[in-house]
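Q: How would the structure tokens look for this protein?
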Amino acid sequence: MEGAHDAQEAVRELTAIADPVKPHLTIDTPLRRALAGALEQIGGLVPAYQAMASVFEGRDATVAEEFTALCTTHMVRLRAVGLLRRQLDVELRAGNQRAAVRAAGQDADALFDNWCAEAEAYLVAEAYPLGDLVAVQVEAALAVARLLDSEAE
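A: Here is the predicted structure in token form.
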């Protein structure tokens, strides 16, 4: 399943940036713990996607299933690289100008830009006109009101 591969690749790319710079980080922020949790979350997607593969065996995934798998991977990896970028920015602003921190920041920025472009390319959809959505909601509310009114009589 494509989602499992994307999740594994995301963990690999993020840890390739985050692990070498860990010894050089000096500011203990919640971002560091959040990043560790985000990496764990992404890693947890791999067995979930692999378990879903047996469900899909012999049939194509529905559009909703495919969208959910790919959209979830885009979301969690962008969240994780965003946390990494913020942690590295905190370090730099606090005066931690070590070459490893600066290089990791540049790598994280490049990865973020790349993943944003991939997400934007995949998540192309036209928004429904707001008026149409409101009209459907109003019609549904009126239908329920009519039903309740008819039952009360």
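The chain has one domain: 2-128.

The helical segments are 2-21, 30-56, 63-93, 99-122, 130-152.

Upvote if useful.
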